[in-house]
Amino acid sequence: xxxxxxxxxxxxxxxxxxxxxxxxxxxxxxxxxxxxxxxxxxxxxxxxxxxxxxxxxxxxxxxxxxxxxxxxxxxxxxxxxxxxxxxxxxxxxxxxxxxxxxxxxxxxxxxxxxxxxxxxxxxxxxxxxxxxxxxxxxxxxxxxxxxxxxxxxxxxxxxxxxxxxxxxxxxxxxxxxxxxxxxxxxxxx
Length: 189
Known about the structure:
Number of strands: 0
Order of helices and strands: HHHHH
Shape: elongated
Largest sheet: none
Structural class: mainly alpha
CATH topology: Ferritin
CATH class: Mainly Alpha
Oligomer: single chain
Number of helices: 5
Helix content: over 70%
Strand content: under 5%
Number of domains: 1
Radius of gyration: 18 Å
């Protein structure tokens, strides 16, 4: 396995961890917010993030069997890894605070959530970039005259990644709705 593939699989592993940790974070936030709309949005994003982590686990052996032909931008992948590692650190910090607020309660939970929504939106935006990068690596294979199995595998990888990417864009939109709700009403805790 070459350096590009090692970098790619490291990025996938980091994304699986980030999606899993975000799933937990959104679920905990959903528990701490008593506003039904916001809680439902957080639960939806949490469930889908857990699903993304699982789908990335399913994609990994497919990528091993059918690696992208050329990963020309290894530096970009490494910068993505740095962003993901930074995001993981932020997720854990937010999780620690959210856990302490959920147990203690208080009005500052809503203010904190408003403050951290931008970070959550950034996490979703960075995730979209990772999936878009992977999609760009596989789309050319789906339309070439390679062997049937490789083309079919590439199409499956693209379909799975496209589904995750679409979800991430929707998560960003849902977080904007939460931001709107919090801006007008605040959060009940």
